[in-house]
Amino acid sequence: MLVRNELTVFLLPNFSNADVVTAKLECDTGNIWLVAAYMPHDDEVGPPPALLRRTLEEASRNGADVIIGSDANSRHSIWGSSDTNTRGESLFDFIISEYLCICNRGNSPTFVTAGREEVLDLTLASHRIAPLISNWRVIDDHSFSDHRYIGFSIDGEGPPRKSFRNPRNTDWEGYRRKLRQTLPRAPGVDTLATADVVDGWVEAFSSACITALESSCPLKTPKGRGKPQWWTLELSEIRASCRRLFNKAGRSGLPDDWVLYKTGLSIYKSELRRAKRISWKSFCEKVEGFHESSRFRRILAKNPVSLGYLKDVDGKWALSSEETLQMLLNAHFPSNTSSTEVPL
């Protein structure tokens, strides 16, 4: 499942483990639980996992819509597999019982290896949000995995991009020039006789400063996330080479070509891990020389994060941002009580 737009989601740790990861998207139109689920082929109980069942039950109690992207390891002709097996029948019964909708379209294989192509990946959605999902497709781009990327669109407006000013890019010479042009002549001391007059001059000075700043530091709108800091030109070349080997192996189907692709993929993943380690080590070395508070500020400024969900003293996880904030309030201000009275 690919998410093209940048959205803020919160991990739900109490509904996540090694095989199931659940995140919550909070938006004005309602809450959406995004679930990535791996269903092991050697699970004796059969699909779906118990945690996925519990996750859907909790989402239903909270009135949240659900979108599930899964490596189901199950075959059924309903979602385009070449045949139907016992796991597929079990999973299909579960889908019907939970009133989930199957978003898969066509029979393009989602799992591709040297000797096998099959539809093993499923996209499911709750019945309320399913009509908004369109353009489901298997993407031909190389995913550097046995499984292909799956893309789809959700109709509706995405979150607006917030414009911002970056003080580091301010044209300070232009700021001073504009400020001199905008500021009125300084008043004499005798003219500042009343508070109203002083307030008027303060307003004029503030307005001039704002005008100068807007002129020398224009608003910027983010264009999307670029390459991570650890990405290098060498990684780009290795990735392109690996993609070419994959395309060649897919066209020819020769075992030797698949071996070359697997070797290239192993090299690419090894270099990827190496680049991340080097970048992280370099980042840590740069902040070691700063004071603790300055170091903390630099880390947050470099990698800003949203406040996640917390666990209270009883071990219960928050299920919304409001609950998280309430936990923080109770922990740091235990005697706090809501009151409509204003102290005098």
TrEMBL record:
Descriptive protein name: Uncharacterized protein LOC125779142
Any Pfam family: Exo_endo_phos_2
Residue span(s) of domain Endonuclease/exonuclease/phosphatase: 34-150
Taxonomic lineage of the native organism: Eukaryota, Metazoa, Ecdysozoa, Arthropoda, Hexapoda
SUPFAM superfamilies for the chain: DNase I-like (SSF56219)
Region forming the signal peptide: none
Designated gene of the protein: LOC125779142
